[in-house]
Amino acid sequence: MTPVARKRLVNESPTGPFAEGYVFPWPEAAVPPFGAMTCCISPGEECEPDQHNQHEIAFIYRGDGQIIVGGEAWHVSQGDVVFIPRNVEHTFSNADPDRDFAFFSVWWPREEPHDNADDG
To answer: Of 47, 27, 15, 22, whose CA–CA distance to 37 is shortest?
Structure first.
């Protein structure tokens, strides 16, 4: 069994206004209880508003941007970590005219529950 799965995040670049890539464990691993993806937003672009029945944490690893969570805007930059509560609308944007804005997002549970019961 492979003990480590490797994915380079520093070379992700969008081919359009927004690019995303889901991150999965190696083929022999059990399905994890969380989902994970990399996201990259081109200069001056934004992603569509999102809302789901899962908690989410975004780790900003490149650039400067803005996140709007529940109608409140926050400036974020490389090194910031943002928690997004379940069922709260949120969106990310990149106001930088010259540089991509990128983050790694983890959410749980992996599959969106169809009820509103709190799962941690």
So the answer is: 22
- For residue 58 the two structure tokens come to 């975004």
Contacts of 47 (CB under 8 A, 6+ apart): 18, 39, 41, 91, 92, 93
- pLDDT average, residue stretch 31-57: 88
Q: Comparing C-alpha atoms, which of 51, 91, 52, 54 is closest to residue 74?
A: 91
Tell me the sheet residues that pair with 18.
41
**Helices and strands, number each (H, E), in the chain:** 0, 8
Rg (CA), the chain: 15
**Residues 70-110 pLDDT 10s:** 999 999 999 999 999 999 999 999 988 999 999 999 988 77
What does the chain come to in residues? Answer: 120
d(CA 79, CA 62): 8
- The closest of 83, 119, 71, 75 to 101, measured between CA atoms, is 75
Domains of the chain: 18-24+32-108 (2.60.120.10)
